[in-house]
From TrEMBL:
It comes from Adineta steineri. Zn(2+) 1 binds at residues 250, 286-287, 393. This is Phosphodiesterase. Residues 478-490 have a biased composition (Low complexity). The keyword Hydrolase applies.
Amino acid sequence: MLSSEHVPSIFFNKSRSIDETNLYDGDIDEGGANKTPYDIIEHDVTTLAKANNLPPPDSFDALQLGSERLRTIIAALHCNILVRKEDLVRNLDYIANILEAVHQDETRRLMEEDDGALSEIEPDSVPNEVRDWLAMTFTRSMSTIKRRPSDKPKFKSVAQAIRAGIMVDRYLRRLSIDIKFKTINEWTFDVFSVNEFTSGQCLRYVGFELMQRYNLPNKLHISITALNNFLEQMESGYSKYRNPYHNLIHAADVLQTTYQIIYNSGLMNWLNDHELFAMFIAAIVHDFEHTGTSNNFHIQSRSDVALIYNDRAVLENHHVSAAFRLMRIDDYNILSEFTPEEFKNFRHLVIEMVLATDMSSHFAQLKTMKSLLSMPENIEKSKALALVLHSADISHPGKPWSIHYSWTESLMEEYFKQGEKEKELGLPCSPLCDRDNTLVAESQIGFIQYIVEPSFVVMGDMLEKILKSLSVPDSELPSPSIPAKSIASSPSPPPSPKSSNDSNHQHDEDNGRERKPSSMTTPLPRPTIVRRPWIEYLKENRERWIREAEEEKRRKELKVIEEEP
Ligand SMILES: [Zn+2]
């Protein structure tokens, strides 16, 4: 017989489960003070014969009991205490069942935890080296077990490691994007750097961010999967012709600028959720599948789209038609829960807005709006939103120089490519499309002076007229919950007093997300002067181009003098 010092302490069951203790209560503890460790192990071995009423292997209690019985078996083997073969086999089998249940459970848990991340990645698409690094870095097993060079990690652990890696990467990316998105309410939002941060997917990120900000998927019952699929298709449509300018960055830029205008002015409060959604979608689709060539090019080259749309707003008709055709497919149908009436209104708004981005209707659009401004009636929503979208579409000269300059370069490149196509087809070269003979600076000065500036003047006046129609004098207000001072001094956007009985009212002061749908009945006090951040930039950029033009002229004169014999 062994004395207590021959039995290693690890064999003692200090954490005996309540169930098992109760089961054998009285047998162990009676006169326990006189028992040696050997006696205790010998007694524990007798418990191994107990096969009835064991907790099921997949239960939490089984984990504790299983580990205790395994310890007893090890201690018995160590101390040469006989364990009956049938008890040994039955207990080891029970313990094996417990381990299998734990493994299944854990696998299921991991799969469920981030199924989304896994479904996006094909194991074969990840290089072996990256897999190994992820497995080594992000799983416990791979960092502790040294593998022979020929050993490949098992798929399950690799998948888990990749998921872990993706989670970390996504988290970091999300963090950086969040920092970038802090400026999404600003006129100076830098869409190029957001595009870099999102690995060339800025349209879907900006789109999602804005929809989520206003809780639109939830409120309008838009499937997140369909929205994601739709935005993905938008990005691929914008990338179809590899355009230097009319690409997904331009779409994201126009979307953010449109949003900024309605947010900054307070026009947001004039729109209900469906109208806001229509505005976002119109901006997203407004150049979908743009060919990088002008309507005139389509007409002159007698392209298919020109024939389909009879030379009228050829591209704009295509953008909106292709987008609606896409939304007809279940996977991309973001409108599936709209009532027929909601669909009709949404479609009307989107068509009106996108068709109004046809530059050939620019002067007519401005003239109509100017005359509406002088009338006492309220302005039609579709017309107002169309002018906002059109202005956003031509807004880049009103942005900081570095942003405006990048857009100018891209646009010129696209024009030059069209010029080359025209040359190939034997068509006359369109204005600004000749790479060897174009005055970039002059063209921008004209663009700012005759197109962009007048548009923004009319749009600014229109915003103020709409805001005036929504506001009432302070004296007529019941009792404002926000002091007048805070309203007057608010830089942007003008906050509306909270209404406790308005369930649709969203408020998020940190992000400046506040809006009231147009259904509100009580007019609210709002500043009717709209901030116009573009004015400064238009002026600065125009002056800069004037200096550039002078230099361009001087360079040309010098060249002529040098070339003279
Ligand atoms: Zn555009």
